Amino acid sequence: MLKQYCRERAALVDRELDRLVPLAGNPELIYEAMRYSLFAGGKRLRPILLMASADTVGGDGETYLHMACGLEMIHTYSLIHDDLPAMDNDDFRRGKPTCHKVFGESMAILAGDGLLTNAFEVMLSQPAVDHEVILAVVRDIAIAAGARGMVGGQVVDILATGKSLDAETLRFMHQAKTGALFKAAVKNGAILAGANPRQVLKLCEYAEQFGLAFQITDDILDVVGNQDKIGKPVGSDNKNGKVTYVTLYTLAGAQEMAREAVEKAVAALSEFNHKAAVLEELARYLITRDS
Amino acid sequence: MLKQYCRERAALVDRELDRLVPLAGNPELIYEAMRYSLFAGGKRLRPILLMASADTVGGDGETYLHMACGLEMIHTYSLIHDDLPAMDNDDFRRGKPTCHKVFGESMAILAGDGLLTNAFEVMLSQPAVDHEVILAVVRDIAIAAGARGMVGGQVVDILATGKSLDAETLRFMHQAKTGALFKAAVKNGAILAGANPRQVLKLCEYAEQFGLAFQITDDILDVVGNQDKIGKPVGSDNKNGKVTYVTLYTLAGAQEMAREAVEKAVAALSEFNHKAAVLEELARYLITRDS
Questions:
Q1: By CA distance, what is A126's nearest residue in B?
Q2: Substitution target from A37, A76, A121 for chain B, most B beta carbons within 10 A
Q3: Site from A17, A67, A110 to mutate, B interface, most B CB atoms within 10 angstroms
Q4: Interchain proximity A152–B25, CB inside 8 Å
Q5: Span B252-260, mean pLDDT?
Q6: Which residues of B fall within a CB distance of 8 Å from A169?
Q7: Each residue's pLDDT tens digit, A157-186
Q8: What pLDDT, on the 0 to 100 scale, is given for residue B25?
Q9: How far is A37 from chain B (nearest CA, A)?
Q10: Residue B195 — very low, low, confident or very high, per pLDDT cuts 50/70/90?
Q11: Which of A124, A230, B107, B229 has the fewest CB atoms within 10 Å around its CB?
């Protein structure tokens, strides 16, 4: 069921992104660069989480497609900038040359800037939602993506590379760098669909554990993954001198932590019964994923 | 009168930016980098234009301080990214080393990303304005700053460097790169203050001519300016192989064009009478400015 659900929702997101970020722009090159990264094989996990969360509280996730697409645009901008020579200096992402390898460094910086800026245009154009709710949701997403969230996490990551890092800082870094946007997706999907405060709280608990499990399994894949499937060289964290959940807790320890986080994520969904089936499967999938 | 008005409004903006982007963040370094560029001596022209435009249609510009500060944050991010080695590779801005010279390239990219993202948080927190109006205004500013506006203009600029450029492309580039945000400031200041469609139209005419005059006089200053006052080496456009209004039209021709644009800007204000005094003086100041 999960595969079918994700395939359908990802197709919806792809179609809408194709419409929202068309090639027709002037100058065309910036749209080419933005679209290159936007359609480079992302799993659309954040849009799917937002829509599934809305479904979970009884809404119709597809209604919030603009918000979902805005999240994917923000996620894509962050990957483009993270890959830059001045940052992680990665040549490949999802098995394809990174944006700056194809379009050059200046165009990659600008493609990221364009995606980030236009993500706000897209989210603020969300139809069929009360204006006050749109304001609150987009503001919350800006906080999650900004200096107290994703950008701040990347700063900690850059500063920490090649240095030792304690468990608390590692967790803070990931919470900010990837956890905040996952949480914003789940939380705001629920808010858009009119969830009550207790439902939002429970879904935030789910999202925090989901984000933790995602990051731990990401670190595990960097050690035991298949290069063809994850689309980048295995062992790159080690090569780049990065402290990970595997280096801090061993492979077996990290696997156990990931399982625990998934169980806590699932436990937070208990009161939603069968309506949370997709969110539950998404969390369980993290343990078995190979990319 | 203008000097006094600008000094007071700039002080307001400075105080609010200091509050909105505090040093207290974690990690502190990203806030240091953002604040370094935010408080590097900018004239706060875009915030002043937004507030003066609101005054012109009978509103109180100071009410819209959050929107004004958001514009300045977006403007500052664009300067940080434009100065990067992969872009214009400028070492000085307003007489001070550029952000990447002080904090390094990765931190400068992230400081720009943080300012851009948090600008939306700030603007969406604008108090005392109807939610629907906030949505429309911030969406319009996102369009002006994005791939169809500022980002797109910078792309044309990068692609054109070292190449010949016709008058139409030069004008398009500046309209997108700097004109769009000036226009967004003036237009949305009026909209926030409840201007009617005809007032908005007239102020947009003003803003377009203001933006044109600003760019032409910017090109003139790069030739005849005083390095100490403009804060960067004179002749940098020539050195970088950039086509400017001076290279296309000669110095005298560019000066005449700037005067014409200012007269057209002032003419667009006629029906506002004395209420447009600040906007009129701001346009006239462009001709005489030395930085």
A1: B135
A2: A121
A3: A110
A4: yes
A5: 97
A6: none
A7: 999 988 888 999 999 999 999 999 999 999
A8: 74
A9: 15
A10: very high
A11: B229
Q: Which residues of A touch B145 (CB under 8 A)?
A: 117
Cα B51–B137–A118 angle (5° rounding)?
A: 125
Band the pLDDT of B246: cuts 50, 70, 90: very high
The chain A residue lying nearest B123, using CA atoms, is A139
CB contact under 8 Å between B114 and A152, yes or no, is yes
The pTM for the full model equals 0.97
pLDDT, residue B113, reads: 98
From B133, which residue of chain A is nearest by alpha-carbon distance?
A: A131
**Local structure of residue B104 (DSSP, 8 states):** -
Burial class for A76, CB neighbours closer than 10 Å (0-12, 13-18, 19+): buried
Q: Do B117 and A147 touch (CB under 8 A)?
A: yes
Distance, in Å, from the CA atom of B21 to the CA atom of B69, rounded to the nearest integer, reads 10
3-state secondary structure B268-280: CCHHHHHHHHHHH
Query: Which of A117, A163, A165 to probe by mutation at the B interface, max B CB count within 10 Å?
Result: A117
d(CA A280, nearest CA chain B) in Å = 31
Task: Tell me how far CA of residue A249 lies from CA of A210, A224, A235, B239, in angstroms.
Answer: 19, 15, 16, 55
Angle at which helices A167-174 and A150-160 cross, to 10°: 140
Q: Which of A17-26, A202-211, A258-267, B179-188 has the lowest mean pLDDT?
A: A17-26
Give tens-digit pLDDT for A128-156.
Answer: 999 999 999 999 999 999 999 999 999 99
pLDDT at A289 over 90: no
Q: Residue A220: which pLDDT band, with cuts at 50, 70 and 90?
A: very high
pLDDT one-digit tens code per residue, B7-41: 999 999 999 999 999 998 778 999 999 999 999 99
> Residue A37: which of A6, A1, A81 has the closest Cα?
A81
Q: How far apart are the first and last CA of chain A?
A: 19
Q: Do A139 and B125 touch (CB under 8 A)?
A: yes
Q: Which residues of B touch A71 (CB under 8 A)?
A: none
Contact call for residues A63 and A54 (beta carbons, < 8 A): yes
User: Which of A77, A135, A146 lies nearest to residue B134, judging by beta carbons?
Assistant: A135
Structure tokens at B92: 């000085």
